[in-house]
Hints:
The protein is of the alpha/beta class. Helices cover 35% and strands 11% of the residues. The protein has helices at residues 56-59, 103-106, 115-123, 160-167, 171-198, 204-230, 253-269, 298-302, 308-334, 343-346, 395-405, 421-424, and strands at 7-10, 13-16, 44-50, 84-88, 132-135, 275-280, 288-289, 292-293, 347-352, 368-372, 380-382. A seven-stranded mixed beta sheet has the order 5-6-3-9-10-4-11, with helices on both faces. Strands 1-2 form a two-stranded antiparallel ribbon. Strands 7-8 form a two-stranded antiparallel sheet. The N and C termini lie far apart (60 Å).
Amino acid sequence: MKTRRQFLRNASTLIALPMLESFSPRGVAADATGQVSANARAKRLVCVGAYLGLHAPAIYPKGTGSDYELTPLLQPLAHLRGDFTLFSGLDHRAPGGHGNWPNFLCGKKIRAVTLDQQVAAKIGGATRFASLVLAAGSSEGGVAMSYGEGGVALPSINRPSVLYKKMFASDADRQRTEYLLKSGHSALDRVLDEARAMQKRVSSSDRVKLDEYFTSIREVETRMGRQLEHLHDVVPVPDYTMPEADPVAMNQMLECEAVMLDLMAIALQTDSCRVLGLRLPGESQVFTIDGQMLKFSYHSMSHHGNDPVKVGELIKVDTQHMRLFARFIEQLKTKTDAEGRALLDSTIVMWGSGMGDASLHGNTNIPTLVAGGGLKHGRHLALARRKPSDKEILLGDLFITLQRQLGIECNRFCEARNGMDELLA
């Protein structure tokens, strides 16, 4: 008897199909971008997303432009002031709540193709890995930051040792990977042949679902092919000492964040990947900072209710995020690409969140910092509308300009249509 969750099976390969009305007993209902410009000023994109954002009063200065006074969370970046821009007033006009955090890179519609994956589709083919989707250690929630075609949530690598081994595999590991990729590739071909035959027997709405599903499968095939193509590229092993054990316990998130950022800098330096995303979980971790264990869990202090003790501890955690961000920017300023340029000159680094105020579950006024990439920096740009006649500027407008800076023709991102080239490019 056929069920609503049908499976295509080939030898040891098993692929679950999406929900199809044609196999339901009751018949349950169920922006194009151009080519990359050769004159692109930036070649790489890094997105860091913190699940709980930042404490707004500690990050946003009162002043705007280049003469703003440094706030507590900007102090770790004081010596890099000319290398980054702070934005306030930006968001996607999306609903609030933790469930809408993935709006960060998706835009207003959750499960839309995220910024990093849109960019990877255009510039990722030149490197061994089209994109690297990472997380700082383990987490309870399993919230995704990156989505591909068909609304597929992309799994993240959360162990530094796994990322290191993926980038700098031994010869034996590469041979095994080659065998697995070739075996999986041929099995997918046979399964998809069976699935295409099934299309003739399903309803028109189910054919749409199958088309979306096949798109995600083809995306997997493309990645497998790219891995095979670059599998035997010569990559110099970096002079970097990995920790003896992975700092993946939830309470070690900040330590894991530091190692992941180090490895991301190495991935950019070795041109192993040009599009990277790092998710910073925000749950029941209890951190130790500067040798002192905090009293409250990360999630508890983010929902502080203006309790001064919780706010003080939250600022300590946020300050550590900014210290690590500053350290990453410093690395990109000193490391060079194949042309001898500082990596920061050709790498756009965006630090942001899907949460503007975790204490209120608010997804407006998202704290956003952008560094490098040949953009105009050194300012606080306050872009919130102050009166109805003001032009509405969305976070998606920033994403439009970032893609253009990467040489990608882009005229819209979700609800945004304008970009902000006049402010940054």
